[in-house]
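In this section we walk through a basic example: taking a raw amino acid sequence and producing a predicted 3D structure, encoded as discrete structure tokens. The instruction is simple. Fold the sequence below.
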Amino acid sequence: MSDVKKVVLAYSGGLDTSIILRWLQDTYGCEVVTFTADLGQGEELEPARKKAEMMGIKEIFVEDLREEFVRDYVFPMFRANALYEGTYLLGTSIARPLIAKRQIEIARQVGADAVSHGATGKGNDQVRFELGYYALKPDIKVIAPWREWDMASRSALIAYAEKHQIPVPKDKRGEAPFSQDANLLHISSEGKALEDPWQEPDYDHILTRMVTPMAAPDKPTEITIDFEKGDPTAINGEKMSPATLLARLNELGGANGIGMTDIVENRFVGMKSRGVYETPGGTVLFHARRAAESLTLDSGAMHTKDEMMPRYAELVYNGFWFAPEREMLQAAIDKAAERVNGTVRLKLYKGNVIVTGRKSPNSLYSEDIVTFEEDSVYDQKDAEGFIKLNALRLRVARSIEK
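The resulting token sequence is shown next.
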């Protein structure tokens, strides 16, 4: 272990990563550099800096990555309308490649030969972080303490903290009822009280970014969202930066009880897990984008995108953001997004996103063709030949059977 001289740690300032910081120093005898990313988790990050200073860290990085996160990761993913297993908008998954990328950049900047994270050996995040590390710096040394140390319980961690004079807040001494991970796109709640998939959780206690649909106002909120090349650019005609826009959609969606999912998912490592996810702004955006696409994309392009989506979502979920196949799919998705311009009108009401209108300068919708009234564009007699040609193989097969 003495070959590691300097390590960049993804550091939240919480109990677990503070223990990891000291454990790295003790176990590897190396210099530790901390990196704390602001991805819109809604927490003050300066305490993390102060805690790192208190623990003797000389090189401390605390960075606001909210705009980069939404612009370069969230929005490209939403162009694919990505849903993992039909329900999960990939809020945690999409944050990991950005953290991994920035860790590797810092490692190069400070001359570190290793990186470290606080993900456990049972979850997906260890895979997502490390696939990112290796894709960007193949020779990097990765230290995953949860797979190395012998501390297997909360009491063992607290005992280690007390032994090494690491402050343990009172609310961290007991077993937490569930764990949460947050960023600007979503908040996930997992573990402990949520592990029994039959047990209904106390949603009022869990939810922090939204109210339940039952507690939402009885009056709908009407908004418009403008799109340019597949990305949202304005709410109610007001132009906003990517992070500001998503934060505003979180407020609007959350106030109307939109965006909660209680799901059992298949982790990449092979087990199932149950979680409660809050994605208010992302849920509004998902439905608005589909409405914009319905007007602007040719049926072949739209259906091809829908066929690609499950594969794309699985790649993001499993941590293959920097893989060539994800980049290939992204190129096709971005090409289709060039036509997705216009405005969508929505009503937000008690957990529902109701599309009430859509318009676009690139609209492929033609009232002249679709009308039920008399027209001179579409000859209904043409449908007979169309149907017979499509039915030919069915008729031949049935005739042979008889």
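Looking at the output, two observations stand out. The chain has three domains: 6-65+95-172, 179-359, 374-401. Residues 299-318 form the longest helix (20 residues). In the next section we compare this with other chains.
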